[in-house]
Amino acid sequence: MRFLAPLGLFLVLVVFLAIGLKKDPHEIPSPLVGKPAPQFQLPQLTGADGATFTPKDMQGKVWLFNVWASWCSSCREEHAVLVGLAKTNAVPIVGLDYKDQRADGLQWLNRLGNPYTLTAFDADGRVGIDYGVYGVPETYVIDKGGVIRYKLIGPVTTDALEKKILPLVKELQK
Amino acid sequence: MKIVTAILMLMLTFGSAIAKEAAPLAEDEAVEARLIGIAEEMRCLVCQNESLAGSHAELAEDLRREIRAQIKQGKSDQDVMDFMVTRYGDFVRYRPPVKPITWLLWFGPFILLVIGIAALVAFLLRRGRNIQETPLSDADHQRAAALLAEDGKQRTANGGEK
Predict the structure, then answer these.
(1) What confidence tens digit (pLDDT) does each residue in B4-15 have?
(2) pTM of structure
């Protein structure tokens, strides 16, 4: 009987440590979830005719806002998933080419396919700061009213799409 | 002599030129000091065990530039802190604010301390109660006396040998 107390304490400690090990310290909960998406106006990546993009253009639509860059290796990982998603026409994806060179960004899209409705070009990363971007890729789900409903840190995987993003998008589209 | 004077004059003009260069730097120093003061209170989001002041991550550099710009715009330290927290959350602060979600963080150690002290006091009290004085029986007294007597004999025997 006298072993039970230390054994119990030890088990509690093990449970706490196990939870601690499973949590990814790089996934910082965003305070922006539930808040309106920060407004901005940026040139588009194509740079044609001085075309710009502002989140207001997507008013009334549920959309994904995907932050990527040609220098980002895990963006390559998620790119195929995004191209696949774009083919289903489930949800429009707007890209934000973050701290990139215009030529590199364009080359990336030409070579790997372009899943984006359009891509805004954030050369100095200032818009990234407003969105609390700290590790590319990051993806936001934004609802019809322009409110951020979800933020995914790290690459979009089929798993994340099926379990979290698409069900959420469907619900928001209702 | 003339040459010496000329050199001295030259040195003086250079000296004043350098002094003029230094003026805007001094102004920047105040900004820089405030920047460091703020950035040391913040965590770099990329390398999380470094402060924003000490990190070489590109994002940290961008954020320092942003903070510097805001200081120059006349924003207060609190404004800059709020700017960062609305974007990156309380996580960027090395000293998170006291609010319901951080109560466990702030008060947890004290709760553990109180539990520890309570356990120690309970343990000491119980131990105090468990130690009872059991008086020696007559048989014990006799045995003790016999042992002491034997011991005494041996000692005298040992002493005799010496």
Answers:
(1) 666 666 555 555
(2) 0.73
